[in-house]
Design brief:
The chain has helices at residues 17-21, 29-39, 42-65, 78-82, 90-94, 96-99, 101-105, 110-133, 151-157, 167-185, 190-209, 215-231, 236-239, and strands at 72-73, 136-137. It is an all-alpha fold. A two-stranded parallel ribbon has the order 1-2.
Length: 245
């Protein structure tokens, strides 16, 4: 019997109209780009960040525990009095170590990572020089730290010294500036860029609400972070998506 292709139509499955009506679930292009950039040279980035943080904290704690000049106690302002102690902000305070790493992980090559990492280095170095030349501390708040989980440990490793400018704030502001540049260049949704702004603001606020810094420390740290954000702007021609080396 000769082959008749029309007879196969009865055996072929008919398309399901319900499945055809379902929306496509492919991820937006910007999410794929973010993931690809974060995964690029991941081992190198992780090791380099670990070494950098180790060296930084060695110098930081050396200056904290052995100041070479008289320590100045930072004055309180009316805003310090207005902002109460808020233990729940500790999670934002601790999130800095994730936040500052995000722009570095968004770099595409090792050379780009080193370039942006160098800007971080000089930012931190300028803060350490300030701590060396002008040691500062905040007034000891009358708070039973051991009554709040997490704060007792924080106070034991990071006392009230090395206060002004707040490097916690400076690095957060610097990271926020660079993360905004990356997110804008990658054309991500506006809600993600707004989330970056709110996260940065929450970290800055947490330094006061956790009583780790006073308002003047945070203000000086914000200025330092913005200064280095401006000074490092020319790196955008190399680091931002679509730019040429």
């Amino acid at each position: 019997m000769p082959y008749n292709p029309c007879n196969d139509s009865a055996r072929m499955p008919m398309p399901d109209p319900l499945i055809q009506s379902l929306p496509q679930t492919t991820a937006p292009r910007w999410t794929q780009t973010l993931w690809t950039r974060c995964r690029s040279h991941l081992l190198f980035k992780t090791i380099a960040l670990t070494l950098f943080l180790t060296l930084f904290f060695v110098a930081y704690f050396q200056l904290l525990r052995h100041p070479v000049h008289a320590v100045t106690t930072m004055p309180l302002t009316w805003l310090d009095q207005a902002i109460s102690f808020q233990p729940w902000t500790l999670m934002f305070y601790a999130s800095l170590w994730v936040y500052v790493a995000i722009p570095l992980h968004l770099t595409q090559t090792r050379q780009h990572f080193i370039a942006l990492g160098s800007a971080y280095f000089f930012l931190c170095l300028s803060g350490l020089i300030c701590f060396y030349l002008w040691p500062t501390a905040i007034p000891r708040p009358d708070i039973p730290w051991n009554d709040y989980p997490g704060f007792g440990f924080l106070q034991s490793v990071d006392s009230a010294g090395n206060a002004c400018p707040s490097l916690h704030v400076a690095t957060a502001v610097f990271a926020g500036i660079w993360l905004e540049r990356f997110l804008r260049a990658l054309a991500v949704p506006r809600w993600l860029r707004l989330g970056n702004l709110l996260w940065c603001a929450a970290i800055v606020y947490s330094t006061i609400a956790t009583r780790q810094h006073v308002v003047l420390d945070a203000a000086a740290g914000s200025l330092l972070g913005m200064l280095f954000g401006c000074l490092s702007a020319p790196l955008g021609r190399r680091l931002l998506p679509g730019a040429r080396d």
